[in-house]
Amino acid sequence: MLKLYSTHCPKCRVVEMKLKQKGIPCEIIDDMDTVVKVGQDNHIMSAPILQVDDVFLKFEEAVKYINERN
């Protein structure tokens, strides 16, 4: 299952919407301390962060990943 680290900002909502439209299950994590820690650990300084297995994707990469899924 994918994990979405979200602040519910506009970009986060775009990723959430795209995941729902594609029917892709995702755990949404919106605890700010966790979002910040995951971002710092992976050198991503803005939300959303989409975790696919052990890979962490920033917004543009997350949108591309979702768009390429069938």
Features:
70 residues; alpha+beta; 4-stranded mixed beta sheet
Question: What's a concise summary of this model?
Answer:
By secondary structure, the chain is α+β, with helices and mostly antiparallel strands. The chain has helices at residues 10-22, 32-41, 59-68, and strands at 2-5, 26-29, 49-52, 55-57.
Structural summary, described in words:
The protein is globular and about 30 Å long. The protein has helices spanning 10-22, 32-41, 59-68, and strands at 2-5, 26-29, 49-52, 55-57. It has one domain (2-68): Glutaredoxin, CATH 3.40.30.10. It is built from three helices and four strands; from the N terminus they run E-H-E-H-E-E-H. With 70 residues, the chain is α+β, with helices and mostly antiparallel strands. The model has no long low-confidence stretch (mean pLDDT 96). A four-stranded mixed β-sheet has the order 2-1-3-4, sandwiched between helices.
Number of domains: 1
Sequence stretches where pLDDT stays below 50 over 5 or more residues: none
Helix content: 40-55%
Rg, alpha carbons: 11 Å
Mean pLDDT: 96
Instruction: Tell me the CATH superfamily.
Output: Glutaredoxin
For the largest beta sheet, what order do the strands appear in spatially? 2-1-3-4
CATH architecture annotation name: 3-Layer(aba) Sandwich
Instruction: Tell me the β content.
Output: 15-25%
> What is the helix/strand order?
EHEHEEH
**Shape annotation:** globular
CATH class: Alpha Beta
* CATH T-level topology: Glutaredoxin
Helix/strand class = alpha+beta
